[in-house]
Amino acid sequence: MIFTVKQIENDPCIRIKVTDKKKDKKEKKDKKDKKEKKKSSIHDFLDTWRKKHDEKKYFNFLIDSYELTSPNVKDCYVAIKFIRKMKKEKCQYLTHSIVVIDNYTVRNVLFYIFKIQKPVAPVFIVKTPIEADELRGNIQTAGLESPLVKCFCEIHESYYISNKTDPENYIIDSTLEAIDTIDDSIESLKQLTLSEEDNRKI
């Protein structure tokens, strides 16, 4: 996966674009010839997260994975390990994340990640970049737990994933049901990505 990080000075929102990693035959051959391992692009994203946290300034993510179709399993486990480590921090400066997903496989992989590791901060899942910007504006105006944000999520059928171990309320109750439909095994995660690749070949 390719993670493109975009930051604007004095803007607490960090925009992340996630797309598929495309390789041609020449690139595949070059990679075979190289012995040195390169860090995945996900480390650019995670390094940015760590840097913003260390600055002790509140920030949020708007992650656009609208064009992503084939999640990388290794990147998923790198993310899980990083989130687990960040959860141990006494103070969290990430206030929330908005993730754009319009792909069944990608959404289920994200549910799988948050089933085995709760997020650091609340996560909203929307279907389009337009909805993401609108939700971001609503949060800035009225706050994370405001009736306006709750109403937006219900109208647009957006998911809300709490960062609490035993949250009192979920904005979208179906989130728990959706997460419970994902099997806990590593094979199920692999199968999700493989099935999507097979469908694209047909």
What does this structure look like?
This protein has 202 residues and is an alpha/beta fold. It has one domain (2-22, 39-201). Helices cover 48% and strands 16% of the residues. It has eight helices and six strands. Strands 1-2-3-4-5-6 form a six-stranded mixed β-sheet. Helix 3 (73-86) links the parallel strand 3 and strand 4 (94-100). Helix 5 runs antiparallel to helix 6 (147-156). The chain is globular, with a radius of gyration of 17 Å.
Task: Provide a compact summary of the structure.
With 202 residues, this protein is of the alpha/beta class.
* N-to-C series of helices and strands: EEHHEHEHEHHEHH
Largest sheet strand order? 1-2-3-4-5-6
Q: What's the rounded overall pLDDT mean? A: 80
Main sheet properties? 6 strands, mixed
State the end-to-end CA separation: 22 Å
> What's the domain count?
1
Tell me the strand percentage band. 15-25%
Shape: globular
Helix content: 40-55%
Radius of gyration (Å): 17 Å
Number of helices: 8
Give the strand tally.
Answer: 6
Keywords:
globular; 8 helices; 202 residues; alpha/beta; 6-stranded mixed sheet; 48% helix
Task: Give the SSE map.
Blueprint: E1 2-6, E2 13-19, H1 25-33, H2 42-54, E3 59-64, H3 73-86, E4 94-100, H4 104-116, E5 123-126, H5 129-142, H6 147-156, E6 159-161, H7 174-180, H8 186-201
Parallel strand pairs: 2-3, 3-4, 4-5
Antiparallel strand pairs: 1-2, 5-6
